[in-house]
Amino acid sequence: MSGATDTVVVVGGGGREHALAWALSRSSRVARVLVVPGNPGTAAEPKCTNIDLSADDTDGIVELARSEAAGLVVVGPEGPLVDGLVDALSRVGIAAFGPSAAAARLEGSKVHCKEFLLQHGIATGHAASFTDADAALAHLDELDSVPVVKASGLAAGKGVIVADTFVEAADAVRSILIDGRFGAAGAEVLLEERLFGVEVSILAFCDGTDFKLMPAAQDHKRLLAGDEGPNTGGMGAFHPSPVADSQLLDQIGRDVISPTLAALAAEGRPYRGVLYAGMMLTADGPKVIEYNCRFGDPETQVVLPLLESDLLDVLEACVEGRLAAESIEWAPQAAVTVVVASAGYPVHGSDPEPIEGLDDAIEQGCKVFHAGTKTIEGVVHASGGRVFAVTAVAPELAAAADAAHGGVAAISFAGAHHRRDIARATAEVPS
Ligand code: AMP
Ligand code: GLY
332: which residues sit within 8 A by CB, 6+ positions away? Predict the structure, then answer.
């Protein structure tokens, strides 16, 4: 273990970063957590201070870390990672948790990720990439089944269209390649074999050579109960997943994470940070849907409350390449997080609405991680998008689900909506 690290900077302002700042504030080695830009939830955490800078302001964050003598900068979102924030910090000798831009390309370019997976024989769906709309549409005509249409670049979690018909897929291709729906992120599209099965998020701490898996979480991607409606950034998550037993985790570690780290190291871009494998458990075995170069949101809000070790120790072990010797302890408990979104989500923003009952949920024993909130005249308002996630931990999944849903029921704002079936079979959902 290293010596004292007084000041830690957390970059980002969502629920994931609230969970990171909260977990770091619990470290006895941390005196201050500066959150860039943070949210009203991080502002209220002990030791935490929000800093009014954008998460995309590389120069500003480097200057902040330097002037505040930060011992570690923890980067939450993919954008700054893909843009090289960790490289910029490393160049001036500031320790930073997260992959380099070269390693983060696995998330920054879905075309690159697919080529990487195929080249290294890691199980994934087949796919073809196109910059030309006519060529993509001609390819669609040749396929036997409707593919998933993906903008290759970063599109704030909205660049994947799971089409049900060829007409929808063709519309998606035109809107991305001709109408420029995702701007430069959609200069190239991937037409990818649609995979069927249960989806599991496997997150690994990585130090360039070694890795340690976090408890597996299942994320509910679709907006509506019963997995209906459009894809979202994630409406809730839970652990344990009934499908992710230790044998499956061993298999994914051995066949997916390990060869990925070895290949990246051999290519001169060792991966340090969290590698998040979005896996589909298909009838032909687990296949990679995508890699993310960061913690998941909302997976982090269920996983970090289970961490018994000091998060700072774990992150520093990753940065310093000594993860193999670090023991990471997790509570053998269940955790559930339920996301509450504002009226327009995921299509459009919403006007601010005052939130009531936050303290009631906390009094019930839940943890509320803020995301789309802002304080107006001293009152916390919902400001659009995913507004907050309510997490509960309990010995059994059913009890954790009841507690998290109970916490959600205590909180209200105009237009609030959430899924009632998070961590519950649809048959158990109260009407
Ligand atoms: P991504 O941004 O690549 O994680 O995609 C968002 C979501 O779209 C995934 O979590 C899946 O639910 C869905 N998805 C992406 N690719 C596929 C695929 N090849 N087959 C089925 N579903 C997919
Ligand atoms: N929960 C999905 C993601 O973080 O990308």
Answer: none
